[in-house]
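Hi L.,

You mentioned the student needs an example of a multi-chain input paired with its predicted structure. This one should do, with 920 residues in total across all chains.
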Amino acid sequence: MTVRQFRNRRPARDGITVVSLGTAALLALTACTSTRSDTADAADNGGGSAKAITIGTTDQVSSLDPAGSWDAGSGTIEGEVYATLLAAPNGSSDVSPDLAASIKLSAPKEYTVTLKPGLKFANGHDLTSSDVKFSFDRQLRIADENGPSSLLYDLAAVAAPDPATVVFTLKSANDTLFPQVLSTSAGLIADEQVFPADKVLDDSAIIAGKPWEGPYTIDSYQKNSLVSFSANSVYRGSLGKPKNAQVRLKYYTDASNLKLDVQQGGVDVVYRTLTVTDLQDLSGKKGITVHTGSGNGIRFIVFNFKTQPYGSATKEADPAKALAVRQAVADTVDRAQLADQVYKNTFEPLYSSVPDGITGATDSFTSRYGDKKGGADPAAAKQRLSAAGVTTPVTLNLQYNTDHYGSSSSDEYALVKTQLEASGLFKVNLQSTEWAQYGKDRVADLYPLYQLGWYADYLDADDYLASFYSANSWVNNGYQDAAVTSLIHQEETATDPAKRTALIEQVQDKVAAAVPLLPLLQGSTAIVTRADVTGVPDKLDSSYQFRWAELTKK
Amino acid sequence: MRIVTALVDIDPQDTAGPAGPAGRLLGSGLVRYLVARFLLIFPTVFVLVSVVFFLMRATGDPITTAFGDRLTPEQLHAKLHQAGYDKPLLTQYLSYLRSVATGNFGRTATDNEAVSHVLRTYGAATLELAGYALLVAIVVGVPLGMVAARYRDRGPDATLRLLAILGYAMPVFFVGLLLKLVFAVWLGWLPVSGRAGTGVQLELQNQTSTTGIYLVDALRSGDGSAVADVLRHAVLPSLALGLLVAGVLLRLVRTNLIGTLSADYVEAARSRGVRTGRLVSRHAMRPALIPIVTVLGLQIAGLLGGAVLTETTFEWKGLGYELAHYLTVRDFSAVQGIVALFAVVVAVTNFLVDVVAALIDPRVRY
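Structure written out for the whole complex:
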């Protein structure tokens, strides 16, 4: 061995030793160091005030452009940094002026909106009627497939006769729903000096342009990772000055990480979405509050009128027998058991397409099916099938999905199968398909019975009726009833609230008799808060909207 | 220049070329070997990119997947036409290859981000995690391999071999969950997830210029508590990923050391009365390390694969995390871009390993 070789080798050996010892010491030190823990972060001043509230979510943002997104993740941010002319205050499903000072039906097909004086964007630009016209024209012009422009189906034209006045011309006369539409994500106001008129703008350009007129502005943005917000000093909407100065929105993929972080204090609030098991576990923890309630999200089974047993496209097509099968299923399903056993009562039984709490909601299924009190009655189902001449057991091919409505769907539909088969009247073939394929298959009439869910675009019964039972139904299951279509059109244009409510109830009664879809459950998005956070009601109702401006942290 | 110097030092006969220094350089075995290995990068990347392209297409086009149930057939056709998905598969493939060759990976279908932006934004995070994991692998695997070789077939050796088998046999996400359960949930010593605490992340995010490697950014900020916070967040994911490779290294070091410890020159040293510890550290370790360099290069692919699961388990927002997300939503452009980058990294790393191995051991030049 030469001296040179020895010298070459020695540093290598010593290097490994030094690196080993150094790294081991570093790991040990960092493991034992308690500086800047996530818990401390919740209260530190690293980039925020001492009372900054950290909200954790598993939602993802697709785009910050109001014309380019219509999903929950994007909507959460958009609802805080942009504003609408009208909005529903918490506790009410009826809209009232937000950026607007007033709204009036100035002609049968014309709404005139007057803006509040002195409206501005966070970048200093004036917010005038020209921006409002620009925003609506832009939505319709871009009509992005990911955007909410379809909500503006009845909008014919927008005019801005003076800086404080906007005139909306509609296609239908007396469209009482249009004020509700103005409160949706299709009605978010965009700064015409920042957004292009004919295409969706990149997030980075939006952040740089600061076109915020909502309660908060974005200070720092790392997409689907961490976003920080501060109160917008130029906001003039109905919520007033936010009760907290700073909010951080932290994104998670794994709900269990989110659950652990709220337990350890890494986040103060969880908004969308923990599993039922996690919620149940957290509800027993000291210092954690789980807020649940009726909510406006609904779950139901759709009957395809062509391919269900005795459906119009089957060999044994028979409308009377098909109806008897649908009604017998309605008699047999036990919703309370589903809510309790599968969702630990984070969901509630649903007896109409319109969830409880929305103006006009009526439990049309309760008095008509089962034990007439909301419970199941297999004997009634047997009698109904027998009277219609249906041979039992009836085979039901029932589809559900696990990657869109949550993993609990497997348990939910296993229990539905158990309930139906326990009656001895049905033989259920249960199948699940991934959402990407599910969406295509269901509109191709491949599923005789299938699971669907729905969250409201705006808190009005019409959003739960027209979407399912009108001529341009989203469900598209082959159900068509001229009387129902007519009633829906009447309620959409009724100016007398009492008359409109009566019409909405009539629609619910008629569709409950025909059972084109079977309502099962209604539920809210549970909100979890740590003990030092207030501003979320203990019990959420269907009209509650999660707004950060209401949150405070001790 | 250093390579040439090394070449002259190690293999002087290669300097006897026919056409001066340049000719001698090109004619040398080392250069021919390295050029050949370098050129291998291109077919490797080409094959990987092609396989991913065709496998993704085998499941249908992304437009129909994303919007099939929301658009009318006419709208769907228009969108397919606009994106070029109505063209023959071969045409699409050639077009994609042309774009990739010019560094254009397109835009993500789901959120309309430039794929190159995604690669830049999240690549640094994966690089940082892979660096930590490699460090853990070396720090844990090499010394323990030396210990196992020294106590061959005795208690410590058997225990360490068992641990090594467990290390690379257990799925990385399982190790991650186990570590998280013990050190984050039960003991509460370390954070559950993320690359830094919320405050530190915002602080680093708001710096005027960032590298994306949090440790570097934290060091540049001069904030000691931020550095500690970044390191605390790195401990569990680094261990989860690093222990996977550490198990492989441990066994490799042990086997190679045992081999070199029985070599004649080591026996001669032993007969001169050199103690076992000194034999291992001074006489047997260097030859045993040569194959380890090669294996470490191969483990880069394993690290990138493991990063997908580790990053997801610990909410470590790097390319692995993004790949898992884009696979879920079947975003072809993003998946293809990320896999292409992984392919380039693996191919280039293996080339560099070949370079290092050739410099260390002249026998690999063929």
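You could point out the following to them. The mean pLDDT of chain A is 89. Residues 68 and 144 of chain A are 6 Å apart (CA to CA).

Best wishes,
N.
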